[in-house]
Amino acid sequence: MKTLRIVVATAALVLTASAAHAQKAALGTWDLTTISPEGEFKSIMELREDAGKLIAVGKSPQGERQYDSVAVEGSNITMVITIDYNGSPMVITYVGKIDGATIAGETDYGGLATGTFAATKK
Predict the structure, then answer these.
(1) Which is nearest to 34 in space by CA: 119, 102, 97?
(2) Which domains does the chain have, with CATH numbers?
(3) pTM of the model
(4) Which long-range contacts (CB under 8 A, 24 or more apart) does 22-29 make?
(5) Closest Cα partner for 37 from 96, 119, 113, 118?
(6) Residue 8 pairs with which residues in a beta bridge?
(7) Which residues of the chain have a pLDDT value below 50?
């Protein structure tokens, strides 16, 4: 029984350390390129940790905007941001994979359209 508790505790520690490592890999400043049905859009994305929570801020010539949420599980990342599109709010969801100094994946524009994105760590 003692051996089982040690194995379970060790597994929990490894999983926690692995999740923390994956989250740390996402931290930093990224050059982000989004390709939507309306064209290509370049911005800077800063990912940081504040009190154990991931915070993302997008920066472009139009200004700065904080993402609604950021989640990292293993190498998977999901980011959600709400923008003003023609006077109405639009939720954009980014779902991608972190691979070292790059992130790439797909975007969903409130169920109305899809696109892709890629980011390179600065």
Answers:
(1) 119
(2) 2-121 (2.40.128.120)
(3) 0.80
(4) 22/72, 22/73, 22/74, 22/75, 22/98, 23/49, 23/54, 23/72, 24/49, 25/72, 25/98, 25/100, 26/54, 26/70, 26/72, 26/77, 26/98, 26/103, 28/121, 28/122, 29/121, 29/122
(5) 113
(6) none
(7) 4, 7-19, 21
